[in-house]
Amino acid sequence: MSFLQSLNISGSGLTAQKFRMDIIAENIANIDTTRTEAGGPYRRKMIVLSSTGSNNFKNMLINNLDEHKVGGVEVSDIVEDQSEFKLVYNPEHPDADENGYVNMPNVDSLKETVDMMEAYRAYQANVTALNTMKQMASKALEIGR
Q: Would you state the pLDDT for residue 141?
């Protein structure tokens, strides 16, 4: 695996985790949205991450490492959480049904906070790996002096 491939792997991780944090922020921003363009409450969104390249560890051990394209991670899909909406009693709300209940989004602020912390930690880990690779390259260049 070359040095630049290592940078690309960390870069793809940074991009994916930033996108994940953007989706989480969108979920939190729409925690009280009861009417969307689709005609209903906002549904929580989640991203699906998948690996790129042929970085199956078993195949890399069996075959020569240089023959495989080492990838990273990418966002392969954005899915909506199909869990039930929260029913809240608020008869004055414009979207209340005949019984006075309003369908609220299926966004849980605690779950979103935990997901944001997890994405932030993954982002930090990728930054640390990127900085370590930069330091290794710098030390390798100093050897030739």
A: 84
Average pLDDT over residues 17-46: 95
CB atoms within 10 A of CB 35: 12
Domain segments of the chain: what residues?
A: 3-31+45-80+107-143
Does residue 64 surpass a pLDDT of 70? Answer: no
- How far is residue 120's CA from residue 20's CA, in Å, rounded to a whole number? 9
Name the burial class of residue 137, with classes exposed (0-12), middle (13-18) and buried (19+) by CB atoms within 10 angstroms of its CB. middle
Please state, in angstroms and rounded to a whole number, the distance separating the CA atoms of residues 44 and 79. Answer: 9
Q: How far is CA 94 from CA 64, 98, 133, in A?
A: 64, 11, 56
